[in-house]
Amino acid sequence: MASLRDIRKRIRSVKSTQKITKAMKMVSAAKLRRAQNAIVAARPYARALDQMIADLVSRSEGISHPLLSSRPVRRVEILAITSDRGLAGGFNANVIRRVARFAYERDRSTSLRLTTVGRKGLDAFRRRHLEIRKDHAGFFNRLSYESARELAEELTVEFLEDRVDQVLLAYNEFVSAITQRVVLTPLLPFERPEAEGQAAGLRSLIDFEYEPSKQAVLDRLVPQAVATRVYRALLESVASEHGARMSAMENATNNAEDAISRLTLNYNRTRQAAITKELMEIVSGAEALK
Amino acid sequence: MAKLNVDIVTPERRLISTHADEVVAPAAEGLYGVRPGHSPFLSTLSPGPLTVRDGTNTQAWFVAGGFVEVQNDTVLVLADHAEPAASIDLESATAALREAEQRLAALGPGDPKTPAETARVQRERARVAAARAGGR
């Protein structure tokens, strides 16, 4: 049986762990709020851009863009977004598992390459011997629209220069602070956005004047929309990461609380037992003297 | 008289949402003025000054590129990057232009980076011009 001193030491150690998890939870909560605001702030642009493309495409017969056209898929590239840090529950493991499952279940004649953002994913995919085309280390230290655009452009070039037939995104979609959903969704060929609302039909009838030309505008719009899509995925991933870490740390704090109360009970019992034993010894010693 | 609804939005956030009498944007083929009652119009943006005039009050911005859409007296500016002209530091903007020019000059003929660096020089030049005009 553990001695009183040992138990006291355990309690102290669990308590200090609890302090750390509590602090991490608070930090994550603050970062989560910021990340959520960034998602909300990025929405109007993405929506307006999608609307423009939808209108433009529906207003014009036979207009197209190379990024919108699909071809038979033989080579797939996945942009896997994980985080640089762990201690976030299943946050990274879920993405890794999803991508690994895709890798095992795919048709053996299709090739698969990965582009990774986040150290956790990179390490895991290396261990699984999946082909990694490029890793973007330290991406989250300087996450901005500009960096997302560069990343998107790089993938776009791979697609346009016919080195891959399809690009997928794997990341944690932010549902709420406690819920994240792993998604594996096509990025390229870019899915044509649908026009929204009942005004869509009407809007498509309006005749616009274009500068320099309809095609030139579309040529600029589509890559922009791809970049916006990547940017959104990154923002969602960041928010999900903090959400996941927050709930993981919340759980850890609660578990520490339970452990402390169990240990305290144990401690008191052991102490009581020692006192009882001592009393018994005294009593029986006195008894023997009679 | 009717007013224009003006929205300037960047990928990272919505910058302003306001009313105005006139908007002048750096469209694909030069500065393009819009007043209420304008016909539908959609253009790409070149790097340059964007001015929003409401009465006697004029706001000047620098946009690095993007799109402008005019429809139903609504001007929607989707800018890759936008900043108020008054907040640009002329000195550092000039320094950035110099640096971009030097980088372009250092490239050999037919270098694949030439178009990107040329675009950069144009952008920095437009930024300096916007700072000069709007900073006052």
Descriptive account of the structure:
Chain A is α/β, with parallel strands linked by helices. Chain A has helices at 4-59, 91-105, 119-127, 145-160, 199-203, 214-289; strands spanning 75-81, 111-117, 132-136, 166-174, 180-188, 209-211. Chain A has a single domain, classed as ATP synthase, F1 complex, gamma subunit (Pyruvate Kinase, Chain: A, domain 1). In chain A, strand 4 and strand 5 (180-188) form a beta hairpin. Chain B has 136 residues and is an alpha+beta fold. Helices cover 29% and strands 43% of the residues of chain B. Chain B contains 2 helices and 10 strands, in the order E-E-E-E-E-E-E-E-E-E-H-H. Chain B has helices spanning 90-106, 114-135, and strands at residues 4-9, 14-20, 22-27, 30-34, 41-45, 48-54, 57-63, 66-71, 74-79, 82-84. In chain B, the strands form 2 sheets. Chain B has a 5-stranded mixed beta sheet, with no helix packed on it. Chain B has a 5-stranded antiparallel beta sheet with strand order 4-3-6-7-10. In chain B, a hairpin with a 2-residue loop joins strand 3 (22-27) and strand 4 (30-34). The model of chain B has no long low-confidence stretch (mean pLDDT 87). Chains A and B meet through helix 1, strand 6 and helix 6 of A and strand 5 and strand 8 of B. Strand 6 (209-211) of chain A pairs parallel with strand 5 (41-45) of chain B, so a sheet runs across the interface.
